[in-house]
Structure formats: C-alpha cells, structure tokens
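Blinded run. Sample ID left blank on purpose so nobody reads anything into the name before looking at the predicted structure. Input follows.
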Amino acid sequence: MLKSYVIRAGHFTDAQKKAYASSADKFIIPFSENNIDFSDVFGNENGVTMEIGFGMGLATAEIAAANPEKNYLGIEVHRPGIGRLLWEMEKRSLLNVRIIENDAAPVTEKMIPPRSLEAIHIFFPDPWPKKKHNKRRLVQRPFTETMAGCLKPGGYLFMATDWEDYAQYALSQLASTAGLRNMYEDFASPQSWRPKTKFEQKGLAKEHIIRELFFVKT
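Blinded prediction complete.
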C-alpha cells in the first residue's frame, strides 16, 4: 500500500508533549483491524465527521467548538500536530473529538464502518506535485470509493487545496466515483463554516487559487 503522506520534521514543544502525555489515553483510539463503535467511543449517538490529515489541528478544534452537538474523528501521523490538537482540546474543554494516530488508508479501510459517517473533511492534503509522485495523492480512485462507502446517504466529502493540478485531478476522480454527486457544476463556492488553515495562508501568500470540492453521497 502506497503512503499518501511523508512525516515531516517538526519541533515537539513541551506543551504539546505534556498534552499528549496527559490526554492520549482519553482521546487517542488505538489502531485496530475491527470497526469502531462510535457510540461507545464518543458516549453518544451524535453524527461523526472524519478529518484526514488535520495538521496542527487548529481548524479541527474551531469546527468542533462551534458544533458541540457533533462528533469529530481526526486522522493524523504527525505527533507534534496531535499534541497541539490535544492541547487545544484541553484549553477549550472539547469532549467531542477523538484521534487515530495512523495512516488514513488502513484506518478508513479497517476501522470505519460502512455508511457510518456524516462527513469527511480533507483540508489541503499533500499535493505530491511531481508527476512521478502523483500516484501517492490521497484523493484518487480507488480510495475515493472506499471513502464514499463510509458515508451515510446524504453525507458529504469536502476537500480544499491550493494546487490547481491536484484540484483538477481530484475533481475528475471524485466525479468518477460511484455513489458521489457533485453539488456544484465543478468547484464549490467557498464554504463559510471552514476556518482558514496555515497551509491555506501559505498558498494565498504565493497567490495560489484556493479550490474547494463538495460531493454528496447519493
């Protein structure tokens, strides 16, 4: 299985280490080859949104804080980012977020029950811009079909990117995925509920165009 990510070097601050040490047991779900029971994990029957690759977790924390009646499952491999999200959760007293520290592909394939998610968020995934690395991109078939299978009817898959080539490629891949329907003619209008991320701000500084995609499970 090809990895769609690379673990980048990053400073694991004392605050992040402390949050990881104090909160990991409560909020990090160990990887398993068995489906998650979301009602058991979250302690309620609220709908679940999965975010793949949450980076430093600031957008995740903002969305979760704004929607306490919803549950959020973040997938990430970068431990400093996980520590930062745990720190944000402690600071904001967030109880509606859980984390899996693993690659998104095996987590989605093994742990997420079919037709169980209300939404999937993918904010600024690694674009793998070199043509020889395009095969490592997260949003492409057959993985888009795996993600579609995890969505409830009426659930949505949202992606944002500042790489035009990846945006066009992802649009074609999602449009070719059975069970998904584009809610727009091509790219989506800017979604007001989505906070700006660090990667987005870097892209804007380079005068990149931000593209958003919004597909719904039929």
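Unblinding after everyone has recorded impressions. The longest helix spans residues 14-27.
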